[in-house]
Amino acid sequence: MARRTMLILEDDLDATPAQHQVTFSFEGVSYEIDLNEEHYSELQEAMAPWVSHARRVSGRRTTAKRSSSAPTGGGSGTSATAIREWARTQGIEVSDRGRVPANVRASYEEAHA
């Protein structure tokens, strides 16, 4: 018997379809919120002044991210979804599925070093 489970994200602010799951911590408490493109951009812009001056104390993800994409398997520890999201914000075309090209992964790692 086959079973298919689908995860459909809804923006936690206005219940529209969401494309991003954002995990963040503040004052020792971890949070996760689902956001559409507009709200994701607003959060990025709002956080940018603080993030640019903050010290990074851990990796990109501290817990497994719920995702409809396959695991990266590349060994870098960064999810393919996170790299694809970043690439799109940089104007780089990437497919929704399959392996992330090595040059895109390398550019991502260089930008986040």
From TrEMBL:
Xref: InterPro entries: E3-bd_dom_sf (IPR036625), Lsr2-like_dimerization (IPR042261), Lsr2_dim_dom (IPR024412), Lsr2_DNA-bd (IPR055370)
Compositionally biased residues, Basic residues: 54-64
Domain Lsr2 dimerization positions: 1-57
Keywords: DNA-binding
Record domain Lsr2 DNA-binding: where: 78-111
Region (Disordered): 54-113
Listed Pfam families: Lsr2, Lsr2_DNA-bd
Single GO MF annotation: DNA binding
Keyword set includes DNA-binding: yes
Protein's recorded name: Lsr2 protein
The species this protein was found in: Raineyella antarctica
